[in-house]
User: Fold this.
Amino acid sequence: MNKLNVVILISGYGSNLKNIINYNKKKEININITCVISDNANANGLKIAREENIETCLIDNKKELGQELDKILANKKMDLIVLAGFMKILPPNIIQKYFGKILNIHPSLLPKYPGLNTHEQVIKNNESEHGATVHFVTEKLDGGPLIIQGKIKIKNTDTIKCLKEKVHKIEYEIYPIAINWFQKGLIKQEKNFFIFKNKRIDKPIEHILG
Ligand code: GRF
Assistant:
């Protein structure tokens, strides 16, 4: 099978990036990370990429994001864009141009809690469960077709910090799975749903944590 050319967009720590690199090394996914793009020059994820000899690219925040990204992406070999903690909202021109080829990971059980501060909100609202979701990206913030989700039960003793850690662990399992499905052609984005193994799916696939 041909390697999938993947561009990864980050803004910060980059632990999902590191995890994807590790899965690739273990051959559990088979991708070629052609570039790591960041809007933050100090992002730890850039350091991770450089240590792995992966090309990096910095977004010029003084320029209009849509034009800037379009220019950067046009020069990259790319079958898939993976958002891994990219903190800017992708502009419509990028979402339209690369329809069906953009994945994001979000730290909540979408459609609940799109946007920021998800761990704080689940605690405040006394939720009994929490988790992470991989989805296709559309113009609706964190609102594209939901592909795969992993859940945990919330304990009374859980703090924001420990929820963050537990949710990260889920992310490290579900993002490589979704990338692998994409690579094998098992998932395909339609407007408000996606196709998995030739069947229409309207709800995320539940991943039982390993
Ligand atoms: C993750 O929780 C992800 O769901 C969210 O941003 C965070 C990125 O973490 N979109 P890291 O930079 O991969 O450690």
In short: Helices lie at 15-25, 44-51, 65-74, 92-97, 118-124, 160-183. Residues 160-183 form the longest helix (24 residues). The longest strand covers residues 31-38. The mean pLDDT is 97.
